[in-house]
Design a protein that fits this description.
Layout: E1 16-25, E2 28-38, E3 43-47, H1 54-61, E4 69-74, E5 77-78, H2 86-90, E6 93-96, H3 108-118, H4 124-137, H5 153-165, E7 171-175, H6 183-198, E8 202-206, H7 210-216, E9 219-224, E10 227-232, H8 234-239, H9 244-253
Parallel strand pairs: 3-8, 3-9, 6-7, 7-8
Antiparallel strand pairs: 1-2, 1-4, 4-5, 9-10
Helix pairs in contact: 3-4, 3-5, 4-5, 5-6
The structure holds adenosine-5'-diphosphate and magnesium ion.
């Protein structure tokens, strides 16, 4: 298995630290002052109704969206500061989307090696070796020559996870990784994520899988209307929500 790139982050520095984050699209204020953090090695699950700002929050963390104000610190580095080497910070963050975002015209192996060679400057041989180790990790060692169109959704998502892992990220952000999957394919993807969590990967997971949040999450954050309404221990929050909005949401999804 590949070794994580050396990280210079001091122990105790949160992996992600978001302070008073605001983001509007035109007159639509989508994030209305978000404060939260993810510690190193922690798994934080973000839940909440559609349109509450979950994806926007995730995308602000690696500046796929430009925050309007507030602070986003990734391993202590302010990503909004124009002096920050954004590519260097982004290369520490693995991202997995609902729609997989694999390159359709490339084989699985090429999907896993192209950024390793380009961004990590690895030789082809080294990139292939790391890709194979990560395909093994997600249970798809026999698929390196396949094209995405010939894979199931669950397999595509596991390839997307293996691709992200091949870049040796310090943390992984998942945006509804199982929402586009047929129900019978969800379990394999969650299993891979569960293993990653048990290996100590720092993870932020937007999900509707309350079982996963309860079992794997160290913390659950409930968002509604651009604010964090409630956060806490998953078992506590999911079985005994304190706020009316959390109760209303959970009564619909549990
Ligand atoms: P969630 O992931 O919780 O469903 P989103 O963060 O995707 O919520 O969206 C929150 C709100 O922001 C929605 O009203 C959505 O229409 C709006 N929004 C998201 N992205 C954009 C964008 N690029 N341009 C304009 N509005 C957007
Ligand atoms: Mg979303």
């Amino acid at each position: 298995m590949s070794q994580p790139a050396a990280s210079t982050t001091r122990p105790g520095t949160p992996a992600i630290d978001v302070r008073d984050l605001h983001k509007s699209f035109g007159s639509n204020e989508v994030l209305k002052g978000i404060d939260f953090h993810v510690d190193q090695g922690e798994v934080v699950c973000v839940i909440g109704p559609s349109g509450s700002g979950k994806s926007t929050l995730l995308r602000c963390i690696n500046r796929l969206e430009e925050p309007d104000s507030g602070q986003v610190l990734v391993e202590g580095i302010d990503i909004i500061d124009p002096e920050t080497d954004l590519d260097a910070v982004r290369s520490r963050i693995g991202m997995v989307f609902q729609q997989f975002n694999l390159f359709p015209h490339m084989s699985v192996m090429r999907n896993l090696t192209v950024a390793q060679m380009k961004v990590r400057k690895r030789s082809k041989g080294e990139a292939v070796k790391i890709a194979r180790a990560n395909l093994e990790r997600v249970g798809l060692a026999d698929k390196e020559d396949a094209y995405p169109a010939h894979l199931s959704g669950g397999q595509m998502q596991r390839v997307a996870i293996a691709r992200a892992l091949s870049m040796d990220p310090d943390m992984m952000l998942f945006d509804e990784p199982t929402s586009a999957l047929d129900p019978e394919l969800v379990g394999d993807v969650l299993e891979v994520m569960k293993t990653l969590a048990s290996e100590g990967m720092t993870m932020m997971v937007v999900t509707h899988e309350m079982g996963f949040a309860r079992e794997v999450g160290d913390k659950v954050v409930f968002m509604d209307g651009g604010v964090i309404v409630e956060e806490g221990d998953p078992r506590e929050l999911l079985s005994n929500p304190q706020h009316e909005r959390t109760q209303a949401f959970l009564s619909k999804v549990l």
